[in-house]
Amino acid sequence: MANKKEFKPGVYAILAGVITAVVLAGITVFAYTTRYIAFSPEKVAQAYVDTIVQTGDGYNAYKNTLVSKNAKYGDFVRNAYMKPFVNDKDEKGEEIKQAEFVGTGSKEEQEAIDKVYNTMYEYYCELVHQFGWDNYDKIYTRYFEKLVEVRKEVYGDEYMDTEFMFGALEANVATYGEKVTGTDRVIASDNKTILKEETVGKYQEMFGTEQEVEAENIVDGKKKTITEKKLVYRFTTTVKSCEELSEAETKEYLEGYKGRIAPIAASGEAKAAEYGLEDKTVGKKTDKAKTNMIEAFKKLDCSENITAVAKAECEVKLDDGKVVATQTVFVVKIGRSWYVDNTNVDTGNLYLAEIQQ
User: Fold this and answer.
1) CB–CB of 211/233 below 8 Å?
2) Which residues, including other chains, have CB under 8 Å from residue 320's CB and lie 6 or more apart?
3) Do the beta carbons of residue 342 and residue 43 sit within 8 Å?
4) pTM, two decimal places
């Protein structure tokens, strides 16, 4: 079990600009890379497995799947799961009042952000352990329900928007990954202030061997590169085989896929009704919350467009050749691109460490 370690109040504000820039750069690189690998079933399968096994990131792994075929992944999450909880404008279209400290950059705001993120991180771990990211429906639904409660308790307001929701969730996903891998020390531009301490991750404890490596540290108040001993490991994910199914096998597979996806694709209308979502026009703007939710789920059905199916056997090894995980992945072809069929996979064995707060 990882040691309990909360965010330091104030660190979020210092790192916010850097983190945002890194995330945006990462999204750009990821989008380009995803488009590039989409033409290869082997590369799609490898990227999907590697994304999960390296840091326990089942959230971003969906960018390689059919979930992202007919809509941008962020738009799918926004329309299918966030909209019922958005409360940023009243019936007249005026912005809901937020806590007075929001946007001030004050210590009070920093501490509030930290408290929300830490509280939600504990709950995020519970959800991942209970359901796993293969059941994203349960994770998204329960996570955002809880976030509304926590925001109200900590901030004392009724406000909620998708930016706040993505911020909390993605911070929790990143923290989970850091607990898995460990973190390097982060030193500020003044070459003196330590923004983040070095931590030992669960994977380092499980698989690492002690080696001498170069690392940045503070010596006599100045940043210096020193040699120190660390627990080092490396995973390499490879596709051992990737075979396309025969015409008869593909037909049989598609029948199974239709059976799995049909109830999911049809679930949007019932979900919209459950939350009481309606399309509303305020002034000149129309919020199609109900329509967008229904369409988000309908677009998950790709059964009419799949032309080929391949079965990929993936393997994750340490540098010494030890196999730490294997995974079967089915990838399907639509047009010239391949996608992981996320309706037919169990990734439980890729989460090699149980991470808790």
Assistant:
1) no
2) none
3) no
4) 0.88
